[in-house]
Amino acid sequence: MYHNPVLINESVFGLSIKPNGIYVDTTFGGGGHSSEILNHLSDGKLIVFDQDEDAERNLPDDKRVIFVNNNFRYLKNFLRFYKAIPVDGIIADLGVSSFQFDNPERGFSIRFEGDLDLRMDRKNKFDAKNILNEYPKEKLKEMFFKFGEIHNSSKLASLIVEKRKDQKIASITGFKELISTCIPKEKENKYLAKVFQALRIEVNDELDSLREMLLQSRDVLRPGGRFVVISYHSLEDRLIKNFFRSGNLQGNIEKDFFGVPQTPFKLITKKPIIASEKEIEKNSRARSAKLRIAEKI
């Protein structure tokens, strides 16, 4: 299976699908969410984005579907190109797909030996090896602290800069051995997951891409249109929470002359929806998922 979609019923229900509407799946992946959306459409349209070229093999033979092999940061440009503005709903499942995690050559998982790649878009020439072998100490320190929330990021960055003088950092196993003295005992997996999260976010410019897509959603959603987002770590969830609450990335609620809050969205979920224990048993990656839903006013 390419990907086991998380919170599929809750997220698709949250879109409140109209049979003849136009919907966007910004993270097509294995097509799980898209497939369920299509089950609710009659003569509507579904535009799907995925920057990973491998995702195209999962496309259904369905004339209602348009595939965009690009980053969702170009959401508005492509919707304008396909004359699809305004849309009735947008869904984004921000997690890494099971296919990407379980494919050793992609370098996303700490479980396998493989190349330090971590690119979602393999047309991009910049990968994790470039970061580890070329970034100066201060830039490495900032990245690990900011994107991985790693408290000994200074020690980690210093060790990387020192060790790479002797040998180029290239493989997952070699990198894990290189930084072993930084890893807290009995917390190896958690620490390494944070390190790889920071590298993945940097390689793919994930947070800036998300910011751009969020801001564009205000322009492409029709009034009454739903925006459904599933996030997997606090950095993403904080951005989404702020944006849904205020319409801006900082979470600052603007008020009119009479003190009435001005925001382009109505919150459908006051608190995030999380996966049930039953779903987590079947799919452990659902454990960290948070689903938020908002409606364009």
Biggest sheet character: 7 strands, mixed
Number of helices: 12
Number of strands: 9
Kindly name the structural category: alpha/beta
- Widest beta sheet: strand line-up: 3-2-1-4-5-9-8
Tell me what you see in this structure.
Helix content is 39%, strand content 15%. The protein is built from 12 helices and 9 strands. The strands form 2 sheets. A 7-stranded mixed beta sheet has the order 3-2-1-4-5-9-8, sandwiched between helices. The model has no long low-confidence stretch (mean pLDDT 94).
List the helices and strands and how they pair.
Layout: H1 8-14, E1 22-25, H2 32-40, E2 45-49, E3 65-68, H3 75-81, E4 87-93, H4 98-102, H5 128-134, H6 137-148, H7 153-163, H8 172-178, H9 188-204, H10 206-220, E5 221-231, H11 234-246, E6 254-255, E7 261-262, E8 265-267, H12 277-282, E9 290-296
Parallel strand pairs: 1-2, 1-4, 2-3, 4-5
Antiparallel strand pairs: 5-9, 6-7, 8-9
Helix pairs in contact: 1-2, 6-7, 6-9, 10-11
Keywords:
two-stranded antiparallel sheet; 12 helices; 7-stranded mixed beta sheet; single chain; alpha/beta; Rossmann fold
Briefly say what this structure is.
The protein has helices at 8-14, 32-40, 75-81, 98-102, 128-134, 137-148, 153-163, 172-178, 188-204, 206-220, 234-246, 277-282; strands spanning 22-25, 45-49, 65-68, 87-93, 221-231, 254-255, 261-262, 265-267, 290-296.
